[in-house]
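Internal tracking record. Fields below are filled automatically when a chain is submitted to the structure queue. Please do not edit lines marked as system-generated. If the sequence contains nonstandard residues, flag them in the REMARKS field before resubmitting.
Queue: standard
Priority: normal
Entity type: single polypeptide chain
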Amino acid sequence: MVPSDSMTKEKAPMDKLPDDKKKRVKRIAVSSKKQITIPKDFYEQLGIGNEVLIELADNKLIIHPIHENHFDFSDLILKDLIREGYAGEELYKEFVYRKSQIAPAFNAMISEERPKAKTYTADTLEELFGEDDEQ
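SYSTEM-GENERATED OUTPUT FOLLOWS
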């Protein structure tokens, strides 16, 4: 189905949109091992490092770059502090302290769990993600 002129006129041309509102789409292949390759220009523009966060939402995969401060719990910390009765300078001091404890807590949890993590081989991955033969 071809969109009508009235449908296409509602969208602003890409060159008139601010950079943060532009949407770029690329079709990529999925390997036999169920892997995808992120296009280099997407990778570089997003500043992706060694890991990404992948989310399944509304039947779509959403890939988020992970930056050092990706997990920001500021709103939750402030909510707790206000509920606990903190205000003014004390609120600020306690907020800074609690926020500073997040990264060390994550690192401690990762250090505790890493030795328990299972190492997957090609065989176990195929077993885990292989085709379902049942019909």
